[in-house]
Design a protein that fits this description.
The structure is a single chain. By secondary structure, the chain is α+β, with helices and mostly antiparallel strands. The protein has a single domain, classed as Aminopeptidase, CATH 3.40.630. The chain has helices spanning 3-9, 44-61, 69-78, 125-134, 150-155; strands at residues 40-42, 82-86, 89-97, 104-113, 139-142. Helix 2 (44-61) runs antiparallel to helix 3 (69-78). It is globular.
């Protein structure tokens, strides 16, 4: 999908909380070919029956997130975010623009895989890089409360920009 097509579907949006990190490279030796394909832009209405439970799983694992699955649905329907699907899961992305530097960032808001703990997100790094370049983004950003992702993210070229601490009052 070219920048113009993506922007027609996903105008820039405000940054949101995310629950997953990046997505990377070529199929690994233990990944069956039928499980790997480039993510495809999809209408969330056509995939809601399986995307909604994935979002609910993410929200159950991250109780600090304040949005509902229906909020994700609305962001995709309104064009502020875009759903991409593969045989192994989905990602919801948007483009954000830094208000001061005007730097464009491909923001991975949500990512979910049917099989957890296998680092399948590593399969899609090349695709994400191409999408970011196509959308004239100079950075890819994701947020996660899953601390176990940190060693893998840092080992594959990701940096830690900010750590957010919070507590209830």
């Amino acid at each position: 999908m070219r920048k113009e097509e993506h922007e027609a579907q996903t105008p820039q949006s405000d940054e949101k909380s995310s629950t997953v990190v990046s997505i990377a490279e070529k199929p690994r030796a233990n990944t069956p070919a039928e499980d790997y394909s480039d993510p495809e832009f999809a209408d969330i209405r056509d995939h809601w029956s399986w995307v909604k439970p994935g979002i609910e799983e993410i929200l159950a694992d991250s109780p600090h997130l304040s949005y509902l699955p229906e909020d994700v649905y609305a962001e995709c329907i309104s064009g502020k975010s875009a759903l991409y699907v593969t045989p192994i899961g989905f990602a919801v992305v948007s483009v954000s623009v830094d208000e001061y530097s005007k730097e464009r960032r491909l923001f991975i808001w949500l990512a979910w895989a049917k099989d957890r703990g296998e680092h399948k997100w590593l399969l899609y790094e090349d695709w994400l890089n191409l999408l970011a370049v196509d959308l004239e983004c100079n950075r890819i950003e994701a947020r996660s409360s899953v601390l176990e992702l940190q060693p893998y993210a840092l080992a594959t070229g990701w940096d830690i920009d900010t750590v957010i601490y919070s507590r209830e009052v």
